[in-house]
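ok trying this again, last paste got cut off
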Amino acid sequence: MDPSLALFISIFLILLLIRLRINVSIAIFVGALILGILTIGSNTLGRLFSVITSYQTVRLLIIVISAFTLGFSMQELGLLKRLSATISGIIGKLSLVILPAIVGFLPMPGGALVSAIMLTDLVRHYEVKSEEATFVNYWFRHLWVPIWPLYPSFIIGAMVVEVNYLKIIEACYPVTVGMILAGIVFLRKYIRSFARSSTSKSEIARNLILSLYPLIIVVVFAIILRIDLVITLPFAVFMLYLHKRPNADKIKKILKRTLDPKIVILIFAVMFYKDLIAYTHSAQIFFNHLKELNFPTPIAAFLLTFVVGFAVGIEISYSAIALPLLTAFTGIGSSFVPKNLMLVFGAGLLGVMMSPLHLCLILTSEYYSANLGNVYRYLIPAGIVLMSVVWIAYLIC
């Protein structure tokens, strides 16, 4: 079967299964199996085994579980409550968008869950609907993806087009502007509850340090010292436990929430699906079909990157899978065309943000017990704003 058709069949099946309330982990896994069976047939199981035993998958699993352990531990041991109280005391309800934006500087799989946990008490205090809380946390957590040099999608993009980080930032900042504009209604809405704290500056600083030191460890090790997250995150958990010395019951409670079999299946499924899309060249074949239909190159590039981002639901997908197919459009090195890269990055991020397969969206909606369909009442208008800003920036540049 034509791999691009198989890709669309698998996407349709995944969405149908989710609609039928099948767990998203199972839905993605089934969709990946269907894509494999329709394209590589009997080699599917062998490919699955090679993916789930690969270093990349094991590394991702360790990072995700460590990130969850750190987030839940910070919650159970009182750090997130202190941080939320401190930030809320300074800026009130606006902290619902500021805290996810702060966590957004720490690129980690499922990182939105960390900020979602941080916002728990605030969401309850301000009586924010679960669907609105899911959207706000999810959207503002990803503001910096196009312009922050620590995101793998950014790093790979710079490598593919062979330009330095500054040029990527200069090219892609309109995408972040679009993200902010899409969420501006919540900035305006929440700033009405702006508060001022009577706490002294020294006490505020102390509370912030005592609340954030595990994340500060992550920043120092991962960003400044460039130590892999697979080492940094477990070390941050270790230092937190060394300081707080939780008892066995507390650790057991944390691990019970962290070691969820559904999360393990989800990671395997997403990595398997991502691998199959690259292995079967289904994205490249889809792009070739678009060109055969005489689509204008910018529209074809936008659609290809959007589909890849939507299908995989991981930021790295559009830079690792779609972008290498589009270097004639974006240019390389001295022939680099900034606005074309911006269009590709914008389309990819839009696809990822709108994807029901996005780990951050899934985890946040599950954490807040939100109806995913109702979350899209916020996501779709935001996506339209983001797409409009990206295209306007492309056309006027």
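PB: full thing came through this time. The chain has a mean pLDDT of 86.
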